[in-house]
Amino acid sequence: MNELHAYRKLSKYYDLIYLFKDYKKESEEISKLILKYKRNEARSLLDVGCGTGLHIKYLKAKYACTGLDLNEEMLKIARRNVKGVRFLQGNMLSLNIKQKFDVITCLFSAIGYAKTAEQLRKTLSGFYKHLNPGGICIIDAWFDKAHWRVGSVHLHSYNGNDIKIARVGYSAIKGDLSILDEHYLIAEKDKGVMYIPDKSELRLTEREEFLRLMKDAGFKPILLKEAIMGRDRYIGIKE
Length: 239
Hints:
Rossmann fold, 7 helices, alpha/beta, seven-stranded mixed beta sheet, 28% helix
């Protein structure tokens, strides 16, 4: 099962799987970074890879937000989660919105799905082109090779009254790609048990390369080491 097809099937359960994430706290941290690094009024914000919209749920109080995601099933949930916000279907690898923003965010390591240096270059260039002068970009990176734990296993579960979810996974590596081989068992009351395999590939980009590609795109880059869930965060300033 390919990544997008698996995520379409998992979309309904996404917020339960990641119930441990504190979106309110993370959004407050993003707002602090915007205040610190902004070079303009920072009124409009595009969240790329917005998923089910739960960062926007909190960010929309301060910014005119737009969400973008490749997965239309996730966007349907985002539109239910957050009212009064425009959510668009689109690919960050070929970003083309006829609008510019003061802030672009790409959170929870969605940037890892740019699987080659060329795809990452195009993505960063697209971010730059969609920023107003003085705008900033905030990117939560995926791991680099030094921080990727090859051969590790993990187990996560959700134990609701009517839904039970078990996720087990194994980490591997293939060239510059990390491999997440994950398997879900989902039991719903009066519906039975469903099995969904999900093998994801995300690029392991080294810090030096990420900073160089940001500079090539036109950004003044800033690295915040291991700032979120043990992963790096990058700030790109459009001067």
